[in-house]
Amino acid sequence: MTESLHIVCPHCDGINRVPGDKLTENPVCGKCKASLFNAHPVELNAGNFNRHIGRSDIPVLIDFWAPWCGPCKMMAPAFVKAAALLEPRMRLAKLDTEQAQELAAQYNIRSIPTLALFKNGREIARQAGAMDVNGIVQWARAKL
Known about the structure:
By secondary structure, the chain is α/β, with parallel strands linked by helices. It has a single domain, classed as Glutaredoxin, CATH 3.40.30.10. It has helices at residues 49-55, 70-86, 101-106, 133-143; strands spanning 4-8, 15-19, 42-44, 60-65, 91-96, 114-119, 122-128. The strands form 2 sheets. The protein has a 5-stranded mixed sheet with strand order 3-5-4-6-7, with helices on both faces. The protein is globular, with a radius of gyration of 14 Å. Pfam families: Thioredoxin (PF00085), Zn_ribbon_Thio2 (PF21352). GO terms for molecular function: metal ion binding; protein-disulfide reductase activity.
């Protein structure tokens, strides 16, 4: 039997237990019945941020961005493509620093875009600046 992992639903923020060997079999949320992985970054905010980074047993890669930021807009499609390549072993998420200024200050975000990789609720790596899809994937895998 494989150890179960806690996976936070990207739709309802419910916490699910999924056997590790079943992650690639399109698991669904026990609460809302939506797919736990949809190859798209999760939109985080002040209300669900701590739940996703603190309760997820898979690493969470967060793109700290802002809607007025040109490099953020340029990197956005690459980040979506990276989600398709890194899921289900890693969750990708986006946090709008304009809407969540307290979180941006708490994590000392000084430039955007900034990628921060969290594991077991703790930040383990950070990279500022826009990257292409290959750069995002290689950087994230290298930090684990």
